[in-house]
Amino acid sequence: MTESSTDQLFMQQALQLAAEAAALGEVPVGAVVVKDGIIIGRGRNATISGNDPTAHAEIMAMRDAAAYLGNYRLVDCSLYVTLEPCAMCSGAIQHARITRLVYGAHDPKTGCCGSVLDLMAEPRLNHHTQVAGGLLAADCGQILSDFFAVRRRKAKPVTDVASPDADGGQ
Questions:
Q1: Does 86 belong to an annotated binding site?
Q2: Pick the CATH number of 5-149 from 3.20.20.70, 1.10.274.10, 3.40.50.12780, 3.40.140.10
Q3: Choice among 3, 20, 26, 58 that is catalytic
Q4: Binding positions for Zn(2+) (predicted)?
Q5: 89 labeled part of a ligand binding site
Q6: Residue 113 among known ligand-binding residues
């Protein structure tokens, strides 16, 4: 299997986790940690259900992988995530010593791997994760767009244009 097809396979796994998050009412982001071609950590957003602002998909996947390895350092591991990581997740990725990050959709509002900031390229930091962005970006972006479109529709006030008083009579 080529690196490209392997990357796509792992991103598909992250997309499945994103779909699970959406089904639970969470922002649909999913992530997997891979070492030696094996998924050792899985995560999906759980900030709402867990009342935990740190429960982003990347953090959950890294926690799972660290528990699997029995080590907080995730050396020689790759992280696949459907959305460009934020500042918190980018910092955690670097602290965990993730070797390679592959993400799907760019995040022009909070992305810290090149969109808003590029923490992974900050020369003053002591660890630099290799970054590849845009893998299956259309699929990764679509699940987010669909989720927020449904949320916006639900948030709009419902007006009853066919009410009994609409014609002015009783």
A1: yes
A2: 3.40.140.10
A3: 58
A4: 56, 86, 89
A5: yes
A6: no
